[in-house]
Amino acid sequence: MSNKKTEELETIRNHIEKSQLSDEEKSNSYKHIEEWFAEDKAFGTLYEKLAEISPAVEGLLSELGLI
Fold it and tell me: Of the residues 7, 11, 23, 45, which has the fewest C-beta atoms closer than 10 A?
């Protein structure tokens, strides 16, 4: 994970920790955020692999609104 994304994740965790949420809600929030970051990382890896195959992939993904 890039430094910027790591910093963003830490900022989000800090805000969740300081929130008025219950411990269970905080735990669920952490899990969801970590899942989203994992999905984002997986999409980035997929995009890189597809871009290696064909430069046209960026245009297609852009048209689909995915990037």
Answer: 23
Sign of CA pseudo-dihedral 8, 11, 13, 16: negative
| 7, 23, 36 from 32: Cα distances, Å | 17, 14, 6
Inter-residue contact 61 to 47 (CB < 8 Å): yes
Closest by Cα among 38, 39, 19 to 29: 19
Q: pTM for this one? A: 0.57
Task: Name the token pair of 57.
Answer: 């992939």
Q: Give the Å distances, CA to CA, from 29 to 3, 5, 18, 34, 57.
A: 21, 17, 13, 9, 33
